[in-house]
Amino acid sequence: MKINNLLSIPKTDKLGPVIKLDWLPSNLPTLVSVGIIMTAAVVVLQYKQQANVPETKTLAWYMANPKAALADNQVCFDNPSLQKTENCINSLHALEIMHKGPNS
């Protein structure tokens, strides 16, 4: 065996395309349109879901608004699934501080 034959690379006269686009479907504009519509739908749904989330109020806010703290605490007491939310924890803590005092 000759070493030259083993190391030789076959030469071609044509340069092939670097990227072949044979895998693209013929209805590419339709697929792009559907992709854009679906992306827009996801963005709208995320925006609506974010708009439905109630604003989280701080402990200081509840301390400044004791009537709201009482009202929110009543809602939390009536609905046990809400008791672990930050608003319920903050409203209860504010009422405890107002009732017992800050050093208790």
Written account of the structure:
With about 100 residues, the chain is an all-alpha fold. The protein has one domain. The chain is built from five helices and no strands. It is elongated, with a radius of gyration of 33 Å. It starts with a helix and ends with a helix.
Number of strands: 0
Unreliable spans: none
Largest sheet: none
Q: What is the H-and-E element order?
A: HHHHH
Shape: elongated
The assigned structural class equals mainly alpha
Count of the separate structural domains: 1
Helix content: 55-70%
Average predicted confidence as pLDDT? 80
Spatial separation of the terminal alpha carbons:
95 Å
Strand percentage lies at under 5%
Question: What is the count of DSSP helices, taking H or I runs of 4+ residues?
Answer: 5
User: What radius of gyration results from the CA coordinates?
Assistant: 33 Å
Feature tags:
single chain, 104 residues, mainly alpha, 5 helices, 61% helix
What does the secondary structure layout of this molecule look like, with pairings?
Layout (H helix, E strand, L loop, with lengths): L2 H5 L20 H24 L7 H6 L1 H13 L7 H15 L4
Helix pairs in contact: 4-5
Question: Summarize this, please?
Answer:
The protein has 104 residues and is mainly α.
